[in-house]
Design brief:
This is CBM-cenC domain-containing protein. By secondary structure, this protein is α+β, with helices and mostly antiparallel strands. The protein has two domains: 276 residues, no CATH class; 155 residues, Sandwich (Jelly Rolls), CATH 2.60.120.260. It is built from five helices and 24 strands. Helix 1 packs across helix 2 and helix 1 crosses helix 4. The chain binds zinc ion. The site of zinc ion has 5 residues, from helix 4.
């Protein structure tokens, strides 16, 4: 239900000050157990969700001095509904385990949430683990009827000693609360609607990730992401180009509305373990951040990492209106403009040829737009170890439009293939310019969606 998106305040955390976006603040229906997201494919059944476990264990979770950075899970209650800790602790732990699962399973990298636990419980059993992980806290100021805002929760936690700078608090509210992210004294991700997608969405906000401009159409939001459709989707940044790239931690992304200067990479957050490659997950990418996003050098210069041949010439897209500069509104990242000339087929190729495995399916994605009109194809060219071309595979011609639409071509690497070249081909006879951005080479082995590739954005 897209309209429910308006319930979520947009946290903009700047120097400890929170500015809520102009959306109408939440008027939460108290709904302690929400519906778990089920896309891009179903999560494992409760019994099969891996137990995340404790990264660090303290005698007193309100005294985290000297401890590693971590997430502290809080069960927050008030007099109105009473203290249902015993009834809910294991259910909350399952939701936290699913939050960890979705982070790990979003990509082919192994990455997890660092969780803080308390001593005094037998973590060898699930009930004991849940009680070590989830700490109850009464929010006295929530006793009054009506909705309790995140500032009240944060103030209560701070007064109770939960004020360590190395802690981020994930608060399950057992009262009419608010699904939002808030920093003031302490940083809290709160929700009275308990499911992993909603709570992960709010936790991600606390690393200063806004509802980023992740659009194929200027100023609208992409749909396949826990940041924008947490009611259905559990996966994080399937394109590796909006706020999360575990394959290249120094890659930074512009995570708020242009011209906000903040840039970051969620994969580098101290509340998560360092990502390691490679395992099976929903999405992956075999390109570098430069190849994927086309970082600008000098205006009008030639971007590194790309080769042009045949009919046309390329340049970094000159400065201009947001939607005509980049598909993703990066600061310092723009796009590549191909000025097509009619005398021959034109080719823009990623110069480096990533390694592939014969018999494995791959999908090449790119976002393309033109202010006028024209046709292009996407091409996969397969090469042997000795750099001999084996074969090429083209998409059908795509008629480009004035929006940043995503296009793709998929094929199984033929026998003997060792590398692949990615190209955008403009058939001869055309005179127009197109913009290229947001490339991705997906190894289709998630094993769960159709042909195993990530879904179109
Ligand atoms: Zn949000």
């Amino acid at each position: 239900m897209p309209s429910k998106l308006n319930r979520f305040g947009t946290a903009m955390v700047v120097a400890g000050v929170v500015a809520l976006a102009t959306v109408t603040p939440a008027r939460a229906d108290f709904n302690p157990i929400g519906t778990e997201p089920a896309a891009p494919y179903a999560q494992p059944a409760d019994a099969n969700v891996p137990r995340r476990g404790c990264t660090t264990t303290l005698p007193d979770p309100a005294n985290a001095a000297g401890s590693v950075p971590a997430v502290q899970v809080i069960y927050a209650w008030h007099e109105g509904n009473g203290n249902n800790y015993e009834a809910y602790a294991e259910r909350i732990a399952k939701i936290v385990d699913r939050m960890d699962w979705l982070l790990d399973e979003s990509t082919d990298h192994d990455q997890h949430i660092k969780l803080s636990c308390r001593t005094g419980h037998d973590t060898g059993t699930y009930p004991g683990y849940a009680r070590a992980l989830v700490v109850p806290e009464k929010i006295e100021a929530a006793d009054v009827p009506g909705e309790t805002g995140p500032g009240i929760v944060a103030d209560d936690l701070e007064a109770a000693g939960y004020d360590n700078a190395g802690r981020t608090y994930v608060v399950f509210e057992d009262f009419d609360g608010t699904a939002t992210a808030h920093c003031g004294g302490v940083c809290v991700a709160t929700s009275d609607e308990w499911d992993s997608g909603t709570m992960m969405h709010e936790l991600i906000h606390l690393y200063d990730v806004d509802h980023a401009k992740v659009s194929e159409v200027a100023d609208t939001l992409s749909i396949n992401d826990v940041m924008t459709s947490q009611y259905n989707d559990w996966q994080v940044d399937q394109e590796f180009n909006t706020y999360y790239d575990p394959s290249e931690l120094p890659a930074l992304f512009h995570t708020s509305s242009h011209p906000d200067p903040r840039r970051l990479n969620l994969a580098a957050w101290s509340r998560f373990t360092v990502p390691t490659c490679c395992d099976v997950g929903y999405s992956n990418d075999l390109l570098t951040a430069q190849e994927r996003t086309i970082e600008s050098q000098a205006p009008y210069g030639n971007p590194s990492g790309f080769t042009v041949s045949g009919g046309g010439w390329t340049q970094v897209t000159p400065p201009g209106p947001d939607g005509a500069t980049s598909a993703r509104y990066y600061d310092g990242r723009r796009s590549l403009t191909m000025n097509v000339q009619s005398y021959a087929d034109g080719f823009v190729s990623v110069t480096r040829r990533p390694a592939v495995t014969a018999g494995q399916r791959y999908r090449f994605f790119a976002r393309l737009t033109t202010p006028t009109s024209g046709n292009v194809k996407l091409r996969l060219s397969w090469y042997t170890f000795s750099n001999t071309l084996i074969s090429t595979g083209d998409s059908s011609p795509y008629a480009l439009s004035s929006s940043w639409q995503e296009y793709s071509v998929s094929a199984v690497a033929p026998g003997g293939a060792a590398t692949v070249q990615l190209s955008v081909v403009s058939p001869s006879g055309q005179n127009f310019a197109y913009l290229l951005d947001s490339l991705q080479l997906n190894r289709c082995d998630n094993g769960r969606t159709g042909d195993g590739c990530r879904l179109d954005g």
